[in-house]
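Please review the protein record below. Tell me whether the encoded fold seems credible here:
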Amino acid sequence: MISFKGTHFPKDVILYAVFFYVRYGVSYRDLEEIMEERGVNVDHATLNRWVIRYAPAIAAKAHSQKRNTNRSWRMDETYIKVKGKWVYLYRAVDSHGDTLDFMLSERRDEDAATAFFKQAINNNGFPDKVVMDKSGANYAGLANINLLLILAGFATMIDICQVKYLNNIIEQDHRFIKKITKPMMGFKAFHSAQATIAGIETAHMIRKGQLSEENMPAYKQFMALAG
């Protein structure tokens, strides 16, 4: 259960604000006005602290509760602006479009790709196949994972498929993330970008029905993750 000890606002108010920010892509100034219209006077700096504090914890809970994904992956990276510079958001979905994992990185290279695949496999198990574009760095990152499998004595390796048109699922899936981040007009710090992206990805997973088969409103599913 996520702790809300020491906060000066009710838990439901905090979670509603965090969900609204990561789901609908408004600025903190706009969200401050929206909350005021609902009778809650909270400044934009406090809203920012709520997102940074609670979004990653809720995302971690969502990962542990999402429905099982399949073993045919689609992997790609997209771009997010932090402190006026582009950083790289590595993402993977399965062949049905369900979110597998995501990782924000300041670099786009073999080491970053390897780290992402290690994280995704640790959270989701080994895939049978990974489809990606022609990126040499991403290929090298997954080749490193296959090398580790060989050294560990595994008889089979992960099939690497570099066919761009087969990756349309993940490229289309990027659009939702970009749609939400665009009105935010970039991030001032890497850690705040990480926290916000974690919240956005969680809201996207809820939107895709990965966390509940029940007929429950999205914001209530988000709140339920906080315990």
Summary: Residues 72-173 form a domain with the Nucleotidyltransferase; domain 5 fold (CATH 3.30.420.10). The mean pLDDT is 94.
